[in-house]
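This section describes the prediction task in plain terms. A model, or a person checking by hand, is given the sequence of a single protein chain and must write out its three-dimensional structure as a string of tokens. No templates, partner chains or ligands are provided. The sample shown here is typical of the held-out split.
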Amino acid sequence: MTSDQVEQLGTAFDDVFFLIGGAILLIEIIKGLFTKGFRGRGHLDMIAGISTQIPSIAIEAFVLSFAYLGYILLADAFVGWTMPITVWTIILAVLACDFVYYWEHRIAHEVRVFWTQHAVHHSSRYMNTSVAVRFGPLEGVVSALFHLPLIFLGFPPALIFFGIVLVLAYQTWIHTELIGKLGVLDRYLNTPANHRVHHGCDDKYIDKNYGGILIIWDRLFGTYQAEEERPRYGLKRAFDSINPFTVWFSELPQFFRDVRDAQSFGEWWRAMFGKPGAISNEETKV
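The expected answer:
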């Protein structure tokens, strides 16, 4: 199998999950028309979430093209061998990317500068498929940096980007309340029930269930929480904006203020790399 064929396969998987997500979203929109408390504001929240694709795509189309080229140059310059592209190495690449995604995702919750981007994804008080495409402008760039070590393990760039695409595309269908618990699948996969927990801002649900495709990473590293009562979604702090520009940059104003007002190197370091909320009196965690 060639790199071009892998890219085509990634596009095919992306299209399939996009269609599944689109079908679920259509049902959610229709249901929302008849749901008191969702009409109006709920649909505007959907629009605000989908609008985050504007800065995200604009940045990623430029930066990720260079990132892919950088992966190729690094592989050629510093890696003496690369894995052949076979069915087995494709599967291995997806598992490796899913493992990296777990840690990338976990660090995005625990390190302030990365949280400024990922908080956008958590800023909705609703749970529907539009949240699946609610991204911070630089999240794709951060993801490319975290997956860089896979180059030095011998994974071809095409396989790494295939794995990144598949892990993200898979998650399109899990941002919904239309699908309940799925029995044994909830033990091994990131399912709608498991991911609803991740978006909850209740104390028991905060910083749980980071997995992309597999939930076994959370079980291995002690971050798993089963869905019990229905979560309260969104940021823990008071944030309920449907203004697209406010949603795009929700964490940045306070972040820049904290960095600017730091009185010592320690305060500056905590403002940049500490846990969200470590400096500001305002709670910023989900």
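For orientation: The longest helix spans residues 3-33.
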